[in-house]
Amino acid sequence: MAAPKKGRRPAGGQSRPGRALAFILIAMVALTGGMFWSGHTTPRLGIDLAGGTSITLKAKAEPGQESAVNETNMNTAVGIIERRVNGLGVSEAEVQTQGRENIIVNIPRGTNEKQAREQVGTTAQLYFRPVLTVADGGPPAAPSATPSGSPSGTPSAKPSSTGASVGEKSATPTATATTQGRAVSEALKAPSPTPTASSSSSAKPKATGTPQATPTPDAATAALQQKFATLNCLDPKQRAAAGEGVKPEQPTVACGEDNPGVWAKYLLGPAEVEGRDVDDASAGIDQQSGQWIVDMAFTDEGSKKFQSITGKLSQQADPQNRFAIVLDGEVVSAPSVRTTLSANAQISGNFTQQSAQDLGNILSYGALPLSFETQSVDTVTAALGSDQLEAGLIAGAIGLALVVIYLVAYYRGLSMIAILSLGVSALLTYVLMALLGPAIGFALNLPAVCGAIVAIGITADSFIVYFERIRDELREGRTLRPAVERAWPRARRTILVSDFVSFLAAAVLFIVTVGKVKGFAFTLGLTTLLDIVVVFLFTKPVMTLLARTKFFGNGHPWSGLDPKRLGAKPPLRRSRRATAPAAADPKEA
Q: Cis (ω within 30 of 0) for the bond into 482?
C-alpha cells in the first residue's frame, strides 16, 4: 500500500517547486548585475520621449532595376548615412533599416534639424580625385605651416592610403594624353603644393609630371592653400565643412581617417571619375599573395576616364601618383597607381576582410541605381518628449492600480501571488529593455510604452485563468493541494494558447509595419514571452508552496479559496469512506 502511494504524483504535479524559484531568482540576479555592470541602468528613450528628429527615408530604384533595393544595398546606404550624421558631430544617433525599403534616422535633440535633413536625404556623392598633397590631419604646428613637402606635409602611413596601391587586373598599359596635368595646373593657377626649394628632397614632381614655369598664385589658389594649411581634421565641424560647396570640376581639400582616431588631410585636384562610372566593386582574396583586395569594374565611359587619370598618375612620384576616393567630401581611400588601367582595376594593401568589404561596398554604392525620398520628418522638443513620457508612465500606473484593486477585491489572499508575479514580470521587462538598448539598439518610444501597458492585462489574465481552474477543482470537493496540481495542466494549456495568439499577432505586426509601431509590437512580444516564463517559473511554484500553509490550505475566508464562499461540494474522499461501511454491513449481519 505504501509503495504505490509514494510513487504516485498528481497530474501536472511539480514535486520540487524550489528548483524553479531558484532558477528564476538566479536569472533575475544575473540580468540585474549585468545591467549595472554595463552601465546602462535605464532604457534608451526614443525620439518621441527624449526629443529630437526622426526622419523616414524610402529607397527608390531606377525603372527596370527594382532588384537593386535589397538587403546588401540598403545596409551600404545605412553605413553612408551614418557617416554623414557622424560628420555633423551628432552623438547617440541611430540609423537602421525597417522593412525592405525604408531607413529610419533618429537624431537626438541638440542637432540642427534642417542641416540633418539635407545631409541624410541626398544621394551619396562619390568622386575619384588626384592627390596633390597629403599631410598630418592634426592642428597646425605653427602659423607659418604651409602645404609643402616638408616633414609636416609628409604623407601619413595607412592601409587605405599609402599602404594601398592600384594594379592591373585585365587591362594593359597604353599611351595616354596629358590633359590631366593641365587640368590640375590650370585649376590651381599656381604650382601644385609639392616640395619647395626649402625641402631637402631633390625631386620636385609637379601635378603634370613635366617641368614647367611657376605661375604667380592668385587669390583663389592662396585661399585654398591657406585652407589646407589651417585645416584641423580632428575637428568634426571642420571635416564636414572642408569641401562644402565645392563643385566636382574644382580642386578642394578633404580629410581621411588613416586608422581609428588618426586623420590625414589632402589637397585634391578636380574630379576625374564619378561614382556612377563604377560598374561594380567587390572584395576578394588575391590568389597569389593571399591578401584581401578590392576589384573594380568600370562602365565604358568610366573606363576611358580611369585610363586617362591612371596614365598620368603612374608617371608621378608619391603622393602625386595617388587618387583619392572621396565620399561625401571625405577620403575613404587613397591608393597609389602602378600602371595605366582601364576597364578593370585591383586595389591591394594591408586590408582586413572587413575593411576590404567596406571599401567595396562604398565603391559599389556609386553604381547603385538607388535614391531616397523623405517620407516623413518628425521633430519633438525636449519638453514635449518629457510630457509624453510622464503621460505614458501615469497611464501605466493607473492601469496597474486598477488591476491590483480588482485582484484584491475578488481574489483576496490570492492577489498577493498575482502582485508578486506582476512585480517579477515588471523587473524582468525593465532590465531587458535596459540591456537591449546598447545590444540591439532598442529604444523605448511611446508605442512601446503602450505595449507594456497592454501587457499588464495579458499577464494578469494568465493568473486569473490559473486561479479559476483551482477554484473549479475546489468546487468539485477536492482539497487545495491536489486542486493546485490538477488545475495546472488545464490552465497551462489555456495560457499557452492565449500567449501564442498574442505573440503571433505581435510578430506579424512587427514584420508588416514600419516606424514607431514596431516598438509596440516588439514590447508586446517581449512581455508575452516573459509572461510564460513568470507563470511557469514563479506563479505555479509559489502557489504550490502556499498551498501547504494553513492560511490557504484550510481555506481561510481571506485566502480567496474559502470552500463555503465557493459553494464547494463535500470532500470526495469523505463520501467514498462513508459508502464503504454501508456496503459491508449486510455481509456482517
A: no
| pLDDT of 33 higher than 60 | yes
Q: How many CB atoms lie within 10 A of CB 122?
A: 14
- In the three-class reduction of DSSP (H, G, I as helix; E, B as strand; rest coil), residue 259 is classed as strand
What is the DSSP pairing of strand 336-337 with strand 165-168? parallel
244, burial (CB in 10 Å: exposed 0-12, middle 13-18, buried 19+): exposed
Alpha-carbon separation of residue 102 from 195, 378, 385 (angstroms): 49, 15, 24
C-alpha pair distances (Å), 277 with each of 127, 274, 289, 323: 9, 5, 29, 15
The one-letter code for the residue type at 515 is G
pLDDT digits (tens, 9 = 90+) for 165-218: 665 553 333 333 223 333 333 334 333 333 332 322 223 333 333 333 334 445
In sequence order, what DSSP letters do the residues of 287-298 get, joined into one string?
A: TTT--EEEEEEE
Q: What is the DSSP string of 159-183?
A: TTTTT-EEEESS-------SHHHHH
Q: Is the dihedral of CA 518, 524, 526, 529 positive or negative?
A: negative
Confirm if 61 and 120 have CB atoms less than 8 A apart. Answer: no
User: Of the given ranges (195-209, 323-337, 570-584), which has the lowest mean pLDDT?
Assistant: 195-209
What values do phi and psi take at 269, rounded to 5?
Answer: -80, 180
Give the pLDDT of residue 588: 45
Candidate from 156-165, 174-183, 336-345 with smallest mean pLDDT: 174-183
Please report, as a single letter, which amino acid is at residue 537: L
Question: What one-character DSSP code corresponds to residue 318?
Answer: T
471-491 CB burial, b ≥16 within 10 A, e <16: bbbbeebbbbebbbbbbbebb
Sign of the CA dihedral with 42 first, then 44, 45, and 50 last: positive
* Dist CA 19 CA 10 (whole Å): 18
Question: Is-contact 256 264, C-beta < 8 A?
Answer: yes
Q: In this structure, what are the phi and psi dihedrals at residue 397, rounded to the nearest 5 degrees?
A: -65, -40
- Could you give the CA distance from residue 495 to residue 459 in angstroms, rounded to a whole number? 10
Q: Give the gyration radius of the chain's Cα atoms.
A: 36
Please name every residue paired with 104 in a beta bridge, in sequence order, or none if there are none: 56, 96
- What is the distance between the alpha carbons of residues 586 and 511, in angstroms, rounded to a whole number? 74
Distance of CA 354 to the CA centre of its chain: 17
Give the three-state DSSP class for 431. Answer: helix
- Which stretch, 16-20, 45-49, 62-66, has highest mean pLDDT? 16-20
Identity of the amino acid at 342: S
Closest CA to 147 of 186, 188, 196, 182: 196
Residue 15 has pLDDT above 80, yes or no: no
- Quote the cell numbers at residue 540: 505555479
pLDDT single digits (tens) 510-551: 888 766 788 899 999 999 999 999 999 999 999 999 988 888
At 274, phi and psi to the nearest 5? -105, 165
CA distances from 234 to 137, 147, 240, 242, 257 (A): 7, 18, 11, 12, 10
Distance of alpha carbon 503 from alpha carbon 454, whole angstroms: 13
Q: What is the largest CA-CA distance in the chain?
A: 141
